[in-house]
Design a protein that fits this description.
The protein is mostly helical and about 425 residues long. The protein has 2 domains: about 1-65 and about 150-365, Growth Hormone, Chain: A (Up-down Bundle), CATH 1.20.1250; about 90-140 and about 385-430, no CATH class. It is about 70% helix and about 0% strand. α16 runs antiparallel to α17. The N and C termini lie far apart (about 65 Å).
């Protein structure tokens, strides 16, 4: 029953992981979209903190409640979600695609313009969504999986999405995420108290660094964060490997205990062991600035509406496939190769850097201003998509803004006080 419940929970979590970031991306105001969607995936560490500190408090309970309490606590977030989901709005892009235009306009006005339907930004966003969907339907009559792997622009997207999905789990993080116990044993940290404390502190640190990456994504740019992350992880892993080797080669066991289930260390290079512990934190700092916040947010923003959910599901499947490798290969290799196994990940991280250098497309707009999702599609499908949207008769704002609106738009603000992107300002000026 316990295994069945875990399977049911996993299935529900998979559906939520596909629907949630898509809805956040399509609802968020353009200047806040990247940060909100990046914070979504980074908040995974909030659950990790609860799990780590719950087990820290229960591992000494000498009964089945040591694992029952963490299991019961896992049921609380789904209950909260079930109550709140009833108040969630629908995506305006989905509403337009379903012919429910009035509802889409109401949603855009409510969440982007403080309920002001006369704000020119409402007409602009609605027209651009409608025209982008029309063009997508002309190019692709269906949104089948075949289309994802036959269209040139989609192939360009998928070679990035599939790669970062595997990179998110094959960058060496799987060793600490799932086999921290073995890693810490390898540097002389064997106390259950110390291991659980280390894990609890690490998760708090991870949440902070992941949020930092999420909040600077628009200013730093996706490409810069990805390349800085992989380069930093590669260098950190190299130092991590060297320090692990120095520690393990310095270990002297109490005579008669080496090779037993409970070997006792007589002496060792504790400085090298402490350095490995420090490298774990530094490594995760680099990992968290990109692969935690951008894995989902970059995926959903580069996918056009009609294949966004399907593309996200493919990404999640690739993540799951990579986890199978982590679960069955990492513990065997780590036990057999010990510190030498870290060399494999150091080389692999070097490959990741080269691959991302030649494939990642920057989706940050000019001067740090965000691009609308329809504009991002043009980066992969060609400039003709952008030109078609701009040239469409439906792309004109229906009413000329009054002087107050113009003044605020020129300063980067909508009439309701929201920041608008540079592209929106330029497009609105052209329409006037």
């Amino acid at each position: 029953m316990f295994i069945g419940a875990r399977a049911l929970m996993g299935a529900g979590n998979a559906w939520a992981c596909i629907a949630s970031p898509v809805l956040i991306t399509e609802l968020a105001f353009p200047t806040q979209r990247a940060q909100f969607t990046s914070l979504y995936n980074s908040t995974w560490y909030l659950g990790s903190i609860v799990a780590a500190w719950t087990t820290f408090g229960t591992f000494r309970i000498m009964s089945t409640w040591s694992w029952r309490i963490p299991s019961v606590i896992q049921g609380v977030p789904p209950l909260i979600q079930m109550c709140l989901i009833l108040f969630f709005p629908e995506s305006p892009r989905w509403l337009v695609d379903q012919g429910r235009d009035e509802e889409a306009i109401h949603t855009i006005a409510k969440y982007h313009c403080a309920g002001n339907r006369d704000d020119p930004l409402v007409a602009f966003e609605y027209d651009e969504i409608k025209e982008a969907l029309r063009l997508e339907k002309e190019v692709t009559k269906t949104s089948s999986y075949k289309q994802i792997f036959t269209n040139k622009g989609n192939l360009k997207r998928m070679r990035i999405i599939i790669a970062i999905a595997f990179f998110s789990q094959w960058s060496g993080n799987g060793l600490v995420s799932y086999y921290l116990n073995i890693v810490l044993d390898g540097i002389g940290i064997t106390s259950e108290f110390d291991k659980n404390l280390f894990n609890g502190i690490l998760q708090i640190y991870n949440l902070g660094t992941a949020y930092m990456g999420a909040l600077v994504v628009e200013r730093a740019g996706r490409r810069t964060l990805f390349l800085t992350s992989t380069a930093g992880m590669c260098l950190t892993y190299a130092v991590w490997t060297a320090c692990s080797a120095a520690y393990q080669q310095s270990v002297v066991y109490v005579p008669g205990t080496e090779g037993t289930d409970n070997p006792e260390i007589q002496s060792a290079n504790t400085n090298a062991g402490n350095a490995v512990a420090a490298m774990i934190f530094i490594y995760y700092g680099f990992y968290n600035i990109a692969l935690s916040p951008l894995l989902v947010s970059y995926t959903v923003e580069i996918l056009p509406f009609r294949i966004r959910s399907k593309g996200l599901m493919i990404m999640q499947l690739c993540v799951s496939a990579s986890l199978v490798f982590n679960q069955y290969v990492n513990p065997i290799a780590l036990e057999a190769l010990e510190w030498r196994y870290y060399i494999v990940y150091t080389v692999w991280l070097g490959f990741e850097f080269v691959y991302l250098y030649f494939t990642i497309v920057e989706t940050k707009g000019k001067n740090g201003h965000p691009l609308p999702l329809e504009e991002i599609s043009a980066l992969f499908d060609g400039d003709e998509v952008r030109e078609d949207i701009a040239a469409s008769p439906e792309a004109a704002v229906s009413e000329k803004p009054h002087k107050g609106d113009l003044a605020m738009m020129e300063s980067g603000m909508g009439s309701s006080g929201n920041l608008v992107s540079e592209q929106q300002i330029e497009r609105s000026d052209q329409k006037l």
